[in-house]
From TrEMBL:
<keyword id="KW-0472">Membrane</keyword>
<keyword id="KW-1003">Cell membrane</keyword>
<dbReference type="Pfam" id="PF04066">
    <property type="entry name" value="MrpF_PhaF"/>
</dbReference>
<keyword id="KW-0050">Antiport</keyword>
<comment type="similarity">
    <text>Belongs to the CPA3 antiporters (TC 2.A.63) subunit F family.</text>
</comment>
<protein>
    <submittedName>
        <fullName>K+/H+ antiporter subunit F</fullName>
    </submittedName>
</protein>
<feature type="transmembrane region" description="Helical">
    <location>
        <begin position="63"/>
        <end position="87"/>
    </location>
</feature>
<feature type="transmembrane region" description="Helical">
    <location>
        <begin position="12"/>
        <end position="30"/>
    </location>
</feature>
<keyword id="KW-0406">Ion transport</keyword>
<keyword id="KW-0813">Transport</keyword>
<feature type="transmembrane region" description="Helical">
    <location>
        <begin position="37"/>
        <end position="57"/>
    </location>
</feature>
<dbReference type="InterPro" id="IPR007208">
    <property type="entry name" value="MrpF/PhaF-like"/>
</dbReference>
<keyword id="KW-1133">Transmembrane helix</keyword>
<dbReference type="GO" id="GO:0005886">
    <property type="term" value="C:plasma membrane"/>
</dbReference>
<keyword id="KW-0812">Transmembrane</keyword>
<dbReference type="GO" id="GO:0015385">
    <property type="term" value="F:sodium:proton antiporter activity"/>
</dbReference>
Length: 93
């Protein structure tokens, strides 16, 4: 595999991930229920994490991978807290 094919594939992946952000953002703003908004926020952080990982692959920098790991951990915790809040009405008992 040559470098130009890899660069083109990573650029296409970044463009497609950017396109995937749009419907999730629309669902976040226009979602009729709170559950739809939580799911859209979950999708947004996953797509943002993946786009940071792809950018890290393109630039060959290890710092992007660490930031993607932080985004993944915080996104999971926030999704769990939001789901618990929607189910019980409180996060901390």
């Amino acid at each position: 595999m040559n470098a130009s094919f890899t660069d083109t594939a990573l650029l296409a992946a970044q463009v497609l991930l950017g396109v995937a952000l749009l419907p999730a953002f629309v669902r976040l703003v226009l979602g009729p229920r709170a559950q739809d908004r939580v799911l859209a926020l979950d999708t947004l952080y996953v797509v943002a994490m993946l786009s940071i990982l792809v950018h890290g692959l393109r630039t060959d920098s290890p710092y992007y991978f660490e930031s993607a790991l932080v985004i993944a951990a915080l996104g999971f915790a926030s999704t769990a807290a939001a789901a618990r809040f929607l189910l019980r009405g409180e996060v901390i008992e």
